[in-house]
Amino acid sequence: xxxxxxxxxxxxxxxxxxxxxxxxxxxxxxxxxxxxxxxxxxxxxxxxxxxxxxxxxxxxxxxxxxxxxxxxxxxxxxxxxxxxxxxxxxxxxxxxxxxxxxxxxxxxxxxxxxxxxxxxxxxxxxxxxxxxxxxxxxxxxxxxxxxxxxxxxxxxxxxxxxxxxxxxxxxxxxxxxxxxxxxxxxxxxxxxx
Amino acid sequence: xxxxxxxxxxxxxxxxxxxxxxxxxxxxxxxxxxxxxxxxxxxxxxxxxxxxxxxxxxxxxxxxxxxxxxxxxxxxxxxxxxxxxxxxxxxxxxxxxxxxxxxxxxxxxxxxxxxxxxxxxxxxxxxxxxxxxxxxxxxxxxxxxxxxxxxxxxxxxxxxxxxxxxxxxxxxxxxxxxxxxxxxxxxxxxxxxxxxxxxxxxxxxxxxxxxxxxxxxxxxxxxxxxxxxxxxxxxxxxxxxxxxxxxxxxxxxxxxxxxxxxxxxxxxxxxxxxxxxxxxxxxxxxxxxxxxxxxxxxxxxxxxxxxxxxxxxxxxxxxxxxxxxxxxxxxxxxxxxxxxxxxxxxxxxxxxxxxxxxxxxxxxxxxxxxxxxxxxxxxxxxxxxxxxxxxxxxxxxxxxxxxxxxxxxxxxxxxxxxxxxxxxxxxxxxxxxxxxxxxxxxxxxxxxxxxxxxxxxxxxxxxxxxxxxxxxxxxxxxxxxxxxxxx
Lengths: 193, 487
Hints:
The complex is a heterodimer. By secondary structure, chain A is an alpha+beta fold. Chain A folds into 2 domains: about 5-50 and about 125-190, Alpha-Beta Plaits, CATH 3.30.70; about 55-120, no CATH class. Chain A is about 45% helix and about 20% strand. Chain A is built from 6 helices and 6 strands, in the order βαβαααββαββα. In chain A, the strands form 2 sheets. Chain A has a 4-stranded antiparallel sheet. Chain A has a two-stranded antiparallel sheet with strand order 3-6. In chain A, helix 3 runs antiparallel to helix 4. The radius of gyration of chain A is 25 Å and the shape is elongated. The model of chain A has no long low-confidence stretch (mean pLDDT about 90). By secondary structure, chain B is mainly alpha-helical. In chain B, helix 10 (about 295-325) packs across helix 12 (about 345-355). The interface between A and B is large, with 79 and 77 residues.
């Protein structure tokens, strides 16, 4: 994290973005990230991102829900406070299926959503640098970090050749921070100079 | 880069000449402008209804449930009728967003956001009824398994009424998470194009700081898929469990194994009708006819005629089984339903739910907007009567003829029902003003395959022979493969 310098290219079509991603990677540049207004299928693959393991987390949360329900209810009805309901057995597993199922779903859904927020580093009050105000509208924005191996002039010239509609250089915080979206941070003012 | 193509047999899901930017403009602009006069009038009436509902409920809480018309035999009356009615309506949203996602129905994209919102508001309304039916509502937390000084004494986990508590609270929570996670990118869009400071700040908070980087989209898709997989059995379980409230009892008319599928079909039936009621108005008022097309309405009308017919079969099966069982209690219950003092509710149900939806077999009527609107209201009236028939006409004549009575609601019961309409429409009006009523990011995702202007460019692909098409797809895949190998 921290404040870094980025070369930023904005594309207006996925059909241009895909070959551009391919070219950038083939030339050995490391993509910081690509920002898109909607889920572009195949982009993660083209960027070389691994598949998400979120579903495995969901499965584990679900198991926690199942065992919480079965464990809690059976402890209550067989040991803590056994009640005789019309002579029915204390350990009435079939009657617990509905609640067990509901808690499985509840734990999996809540757990997965919280994990999703944690992994994406999103939360109410979190602020991040937006490379282009239209990256959530109709532009596909690629950012490449500028450092000793990737000199500014070389990268920007290269990005222009890939069919980008706009290319510029920005100084930006690469992580997240708490802040208000209607206010500019001190470094953001610096970046526009 | 994959080939973007969808058969011409399918009609476009987005009409007109749309670009990505135009989609944002069309859907976000109503949020940025001032609402029209219709909005203020509607919102005002909703608030008045809501206030009357709060007054009616306060009255019943202060004086006790004796102010309601419920009596010795009809213990549930309007209150639980309305509960089941609202919770049934609340089934369409998750069905559209979850089950249709798993079935890869593209048309769900135009309507899922509003339908999910409707689900959440309907479940909020439904929840009020069992809560205030408790009478001593300040002891309501006793339904939760909390450690307490009475033993601790726990709730009865073997009771369908407690299953309901878990089912409905889980359903509400999961629907809310599903809905809100999908809203994040759209809130980010409103934030990024905001011109005023207040809007920038509020939508900044609401968007959780979403920027739309590649990995977050990948996780979003995974989250949506798994939540859809979880919600599919969930949505079926909720109304199944509601039906257990009746089916596990030993009251003639309630004690039947057909209830779970019959209740679920009825829920979907009424839910889609409510979605149609709201969307016919919303598309007109917000000028979204190009996104919520006649094709969308027709697709929902098809589901209405399907589920309406399932419900019809269920009604007839019930009648048959009551005769076939040769149990005098069962036979009497159904005889009185059809010909007893509440005959009008039974025949209102039959007409609205079974007979009139059959008109949707005609394509002309399925694609007729005013007819769809009228029918959507007829269906919901019918579904209200269904619950009334089940609850009141099964109980008003019990095992002891001396306690037979006729049940009519009093004004606090009616006021409570009207109040939930106030709650529902207050929420819906606020939603229509401050939230994107159509999932912008999802529309953009399908635009190049299902948008009218893009489909028109697909003639060349449509004319290909199967061999040529296979070849073209193969080539486009190799392109994507190259990108992976490149590094």
